[in-house]
Amino acid sequence: MKHIFSLIFFAFAITAQAQQQAVIEVGYDYHFFDPRGIEKHHDFILLAGQDCSKFYNNQSHWLDSLRCTKDGDKWYNQQGLIMMGLLMDKSREEREAILNSSSIGHEVNMYVVRDNDKFKVWDMVYYEYRKYSEPIEERNWTIMGDTTKNILGYECIMATADYHGRHWTVWFTPEIPVDAGPWKLLGLPGLILEASDTTGHHHFTANGIQSTDMNITQVYEPYPYEKTSRKKFLELCRFRYDNVQGMSDLHFGGNGPRLTPENIAYEKGKEGYDLLETDYR
Question: What is the reported pTM?
Answer without folding.
Answer: 0.82
